[in-house]
Amino acid sequence: MLNIVVCVSGGGTNLQAIIDGVEKGTIRNTRIIGVISNNAGAYALERAKKAGIPAFSISPKNFESREAFNRAFLDQLEALEPDLIVLAGFLVILPEKMIEVYRDRIINIHPSLIPSFCGTGYYGLKVHEAALARGVKVTGATVHYVDEGTDTGKIILQKAVEVLEGDTPELLQRRVMEQAEWIILPKAIDQIAGAKG
Ligand code: GAR
Question: Which residues' Cβ are closer than 6 Å to ligand 1?
Answer without folding.
Answer: 8, 10-14, 44, 88-89, 109-111, 123-124, 127, 177, 181
